[in-house]
Write a structure and sequence with these properties.
Strand 15 and strand 16 form a beta hairpin. By secondary structure, the chain is α+β, with helices and mostly antiparallel strands. The chain contains 9 helices and 23 strands. About 25% of the residues lie in helices and about 30% in strands. The strands form 5 sheets. Strands 6-5-9-3-2-13-16-15 form an 8-stranded mixed β-sheet, with no helix packed on it.
Length: about 500
């Protein structure tokens, strides 16, 4: 994910802090200064009232999911079960035209509901086939159906939109969202960038299956999550239809558009592998890194349990100005400049930790990054390099004023810190302390049990500590108090 920058950890944390601070979506304000009025679907479209207005028997859904760091991210009142995204992209102009068909279930009586969408022009909206009212308010797109949605009922919302997606850029020039490249585009969504290219409930607590259909000029390729269902060319345009069957959080959805060398294979367990390497990237020409992917997958399954998805692979893209890799589901996206075995191991581990077992809120980020960083330590240990204890000792030897000890991994002080060094390295040190407490065989069983218990679900830090203590058969307050929640360098 964002912090997987294989430069210095200090630089990574500093850069991401700037990126997140630049996000208008993450402010504590109500966002009313950022948006214009969206297009109406027709003269008889229902009018949307002011925020908080009660419409007969229903109420508008909440404009945020209540995340401790991103209070306006996500939405309340409904649960998405499926996204069908139909996209058409022109690499020359950078224009994206899209239709998002969202199948969801109301979790409250709704007079209106919100979607997260940054920029882009909304052309029309319908709910269950009937025109709906829309209002833009910063990143919030409010949709008011003609008929109220009763709690427990399924509904289908369709939003047509178009424009040039606006990437989110921080002060140092690193970006996320829909990013143009020299020969196409690539989407990096964590933590908020996915709302730059499709409307949705963009919080990790609401996962759904996806169909992503992308039309591009003939000769250009479009890679996405899951399995390629169809590819067809007509009238000088090629359409690629990708299907992600297992639940996926929106921040790990991706589309990569450009010119790629595609390789296909299967793992020993039968998982189809589709990898795409940008033909202009000039990396891994002898296949040394990519060739180890089946080995990495087999090793990870032995360590973490059965692979949780029905496809796998990597995307290697030029991804201009992006010096970090991201665990896009089933097919991690790794920029050419940081494409090496360590990053492949890290992002592959995320398929278990972060993608299948997804954090309940962004405060639980250390569960993703601590495990993925510890996977790097396990990989070197299992392949004749430094042991996990060596990694632990080297990091513990750092001075008390090193940024590794800036804050407890389970309590980043702000949104700009969720990809800081303590989340990664000190998070991995927490995992190692657990291993020491339960022993090697107990640890292997504990990890595999964790990934199976929460497979395709969500988990919080409390869920994890409760689970670990149940498996250990005793309280582990000394680990939690010193390493997970304690201030400063543990002794």
């Amino acid at each position: 994910m964002i912090g997987c920058v294989k430069t210095s950890g200090r630089l990574a944390a500093f850069a991401v802090a700037g990126l997140l601070a630049a996000l208008p979506a993450c402010s504590e304000s109500d966002g009313r200064d950022g948006g214009g009025t969206g297009a109406r679907t027709g003269a008889d479209t229902a009018r949307t009232g002011a925020p908080g207005t009660v419409f007969r028997s229903g109420h508008p859904g909440a404009a945020g999911a209540g995340d401790p760091y991103f209070p306006k991210l996500g939405n309340g009142g409904y649960d998405v079960t499926h996204y069908a995204l139909t996209l058409s992209y022109d690499p020359g102009s950078g224009r994206l035209e899209g239709t998002a068909e969202i199948t969801a279930k109301a979790t409250a009586d709704l007079s209106a509901f919100n979607l997260d969408l940054l920029g882009m022009e909304v052309l029309s909206a319908t709910v269950d086939g009937r025109g709906a009212g829309v209002r833009r308010d910063g990143q919030e797109l409010t949709v008011q159906p003609r008929e109220h949605l009763r709690k427990g009922t399924a509904f289908r919302g369709v939003v047509r939109y178009a424009g040039t997606p606006e990437p989110v850029t921080h002060d140092h020039g690193w970006r996320e969202g829909w990013l143009r490249t020299d020969n196409g585009a690539v989407a990096f969504g964590e933590p908020t960038g996915s709302m730059s290219w499709f409307p949705g409930n963009h919080h990790p607590s609401d996962k759904a299956s996806y169909d992503i259909t992308v039309t591009v000029p003939k000769g250009v390729q479009a890679i996405s999550n899951g399995q390629l269902r169809t590819q067809r060319t007509s009238g000088g345009r090629t359409t690629f239809h990708w299907h992600q069957a297992e639940p996926m959080a929106s921040h790990v959805a991706t589309v990569a558009i450009g010119s790629y060398d595609i390789t296909t294979s299967r793992t020993r367990s039968g998982i189809p592998v589709v990898s795409a390497v940008d033909t202009t990237a000039g990396v891994d020409e002898d296949g040394a890194v990519l060739g180890r992917f089946p080995e990495i997958m087999e090793w990870a399954e032995g360590r973490f349990g059965p692979y949780p998805f029905s496809s796998a692979g990597v995307i290697v893209d030029q991804a201009a100005d992006v010096p970090y890799a991201l665990e896009t589901q089933t097919r991690a996206t790794i920029p050419a400049g940081v494409f090496h075995t360590t990053n492949v191991v890290h992002e592959t581990a995320h398929q278990w930790f972060g993608n299948s077992v997804t954090p309940r809120t962004w405060r639980d980020m250390w569960l993703n990054e601590g495990f993925a960083t510890y996977a790097e330590w396990l990989w070197t240990e299992d392949h004749g390099g430094a042991s996990a204890q060596d990694h632990f000792d080297r990091n513990h030897a750092k001075a008390a004023d090193d940024d590794e000890w800036d804050f407890p991994p389970a309590e980043p002080p702000s949104a700009s810190d969720i990809s800081g060094q303590p989340v990664y390295v000190r998070g991995a040190m927490v995992i190692h302390k657990i291993r020491q407490a339960v022993g090697d065989e107990g640890f292997r069983s504990l990890v595999r049990g964790w990934t199976l218990r929460h497979r395709h679900g969500h988990a919080s830090t409390r869920d994890f500590t409760t689970y670990v203590e149940a498996r250990a058969g005793r309280k582990l307050d000394s680990i939690w108090d010193s390493w997970l929640y304690g201030d400063g360098k543990p002794s």
